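Researcher: Hi, I'm a grad student and pretty new to this. My advisor asked me to get structures for two proteins we've been looking at. I'm not sure of the right format, so I'll just paste the first sequence and hope you can take it from there.
Model: That works fine. Here's the first sequence with its C-alpha cells right after it:
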Amino acid sequence: MAFDTQISTLNITPCMYKLHPGDSLIIHPEDNNIYIIIQGLLIIHQTFSNGTKISKCIIKNGYFINQLFQSRQIHNYFYIVEATNISYVLTISHKDVFNVQKVLILHKNQLLSSRNVLDVLIHKNIKERIVHLILMLSELAGRSSNNYIFIDIHLSLSTIATIVGSSRNTVSSIINEFRKNKLIAYQKQKIIIYDISKLLSHRSI
C-alpha cells in the first residue's frame, strides 16, 4: 500500500504546503509536528540568533523531518527548510504523531532520502566543495540529455555559499571559472554540467 494511501486510512487531518523555489518553512523549538517531503528537493539550514546560518542536509521525496531539537535544552537557533524547486510538504500535527508512527516505521527505508552536507565540508578547498555539491545535486536531481546533465532545481549563489561555508563572492568567482572552462553553465540559478569528467578532476577526495 502506498504511503499516502496509508496516511488516508488513519484518523488524522494532515496539512499540505506547496513551496516554490526560494520559499521556506520555519521550524521553531516548540514545533513538534512531523513534516514529510512528498515531492521536491529542499535544504535544511540551522539558523542561530546571531544570524549565523549552517546548512545541515539536502532532502528529497520521502524524507520526514522530526525531532530536530534536543530536549531539555535552551535553544538559540531554529531551522529553515528552503525549497529549490516546486515542493509539496505534508504536515502532521504532534497530536496525531502516535497514530502515524506505525506507518513511519514501515516506510523507514524510503523516508531516509537525504545527503549530509558534511560530505561536502570534508573537502578543505572551497572549489572542491563546490564540485562535490554539484555532483551530489546531479545524483539527486540531475537529468541526462545528449552530452550534458541538467540539474532541475533553482540554487542561488548565496545558498551555494551557505552550503559550502564560503562567501557569495568566492562562489561567484569559482562558478565563473567553471563557466569559462566550459565545465558547467549557470544561468537563472540553474546548473548544467557539460563535462563531468573534467569536473571530477577538481575533486581530490
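Researcher: Oh nice, that was easy. Here's the second one.
Model: And its structure:
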Amino acid sequence: MLTALLLATGKFLSERELNRLLWGSRPPATCDAQIYNHISRLRKALGAGVITARRGPAYQLSTDGASFDLAEFEALAARGQVALRAGRWEDASGLLRAGLARWRGPALADVSEHLANAEGPRLEEIRVNAVESLIEAELAMGRHTQVLPELTSLVARHPLRERFRAQLMTTLYRCDRQAEALAVYEQSRRLLADELGIEPGLRLRDVHHAILTADPALRCPA
C-alpha cells in the first residue's frame, strides 16, 4: 500500500486502482475494508510528516518534504542528464553514480506481484537509462579501460540495448581491439535480425562506420 501511494507521486489513487495494484483482477470481498485498515495504520505509523488524504473513493500520500530512495534517484539522475547534455562530464558522472547508489537490488522486490508487474518495468527502464548515461560520461572522460568489464557484463544482461553495444564497440576500439569491436557489430546485426527482424539502428551503424573509416572523432578524447 505504502509503495503504491509513493509511486503515485502525490496523485490520488482510487480504491479501484489500489485493488488492481494489490490484488490484480480478483480482489477479495473485503478489499475496501482492508484498504481502509491499511490507511489507518499508515497514519499511525508515519506520523504528521506524511499525511494521507481522501477525496471520494481515492487516497493521496503527501510526503511533506520527506525523501525516499526513488525520489532522490530521480532528482539526481535528472541533474546528471542536464550535466551530460551540457558537456560537464565529471558532474554528470558524479550525479548519476550518486543516484544509482540509491538502488539496493531489484526494484519492487518485496511488493505484490501485481504492483511489481505494473511499475517494475518503468523503474528498471529509468535505472538502465541512467547507467547508459553514466557510461557515456565516463567514455567522454577517456575512462574506456575502466568501464570495459562493466560494459561487457551490461551487454550480456541487456543484449537488445543498442546504446550499450555501441558503447562497447567504442570502448574496444579505443583499447586497440578493433576486430573485437567489429565482431560486436556483426553479433548485434544477427541478433536483431533473428530476434526482431530489424537492422541495427543509426547509433550502431554510425559507430560501425566510424571504426571502418578510422574516424578521429571515435578516438579517446584528449
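Researcher: Is there anything I should tell my advisor about the second?
Model: You could mention this: The chain has three domains: 2-62, 67-141, 143-222.
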